[in-house]
Design goal:
The protein has 212 residues and is mainly alpha-helical. It contains 10 helices and 3 strands.
């Protein structure tokens, strides 16, 4: 393990490694997390491994089952509907607030991100599109400036990362997503808070359709 990382709590470092493996599907949804085997694999005691698993459980990435241990969370259709309902409300509010609060510099940053999103779509670069998409949403939340709301959004999006990237590879979805982002951006640039909220909620509704 990288000695530089040991300046951080060991459980935090382990949680980050497990999180990376989960997002990469090296630990697939439904996989049992064998605490003892993982501790041996990581070369650590079971205590920091147990604490790391608790961290991931608090984020929704791991589900603990009575007398059965911990498993990588499986997201079903009902879960998706509930998650997107909450995200639609919160991210819609963030877009609404951004349309009012954003400085001219921040508007330029959003515009620049969207230009990069356009290029990634033109290049059919799914990885780049996904990364810029995340940055676009993150910047809107940052501008909105509600740390409590943003904390909930971050945790819910971590759960969606268990499978959501696959939806962008479906026929036509990347281009549709691009157009939806364009609508969000245009509303924000016009300082149209109602339009920005509506465009964001429409985007998330389409996102739900794409992953079901």
């Amino acid at each position: 393990m990288n000695t530089k990382l040991l300046n951080r709590p060991l459980s935090e470092v382990v949680a980050e490694r497990l999180r990376t493996q989960i997002f990469a599907h090296e630990l697939a949804p439904g996989s049992w997390l064998d605490e003892q085997s993982l501790a041996i694999e990581f070369g650590i005691s079971r205590t920091p491994m147990r604490e790391a698993i608790k961290v991931l459980a608090s984020e929704g990435l791991v589900t603990t089952k009575m007398n059965r241990g911990a498993y990588v969370t499986e997201v079903d259709r009902h879960d998706l509907e509930q998650i997107f309902t909450i995200l639609s409300l919160l991210e819609g509010q963030a877009a609404k607030e951004t349309a009012v609060k954003a400085t001219e510099m921040q508007l330029t940053q959003l515009d620049n991100l969207h230009h990069r999103l356009e290029k990634a779509a033109a290049d059919r670069d799914l990885e780049q599109f996904f990364e810029i998409n995340v940055k676009f949403h993150d910047l809107i939340q940052e501008i909105a400036g509600n740390q409590w709301m943003n904390g909930v959004i971050v945790d819910l999006r971590k759960v969606l990362k268990l499978q959501r990237r696959d939806s962008l590879s479906r026929s036509g979805r990347m281009q549709s997503s691009l157009l939806e982002h364009r609508e969000i951006l245009q509303a924000i640039l016009k300082r149209d808070c109602v339009g920005a909220e509506a465009a964001m909620r429409k985007h998330l509704a389409r996102g739900l359709e794409a992953v079901q």
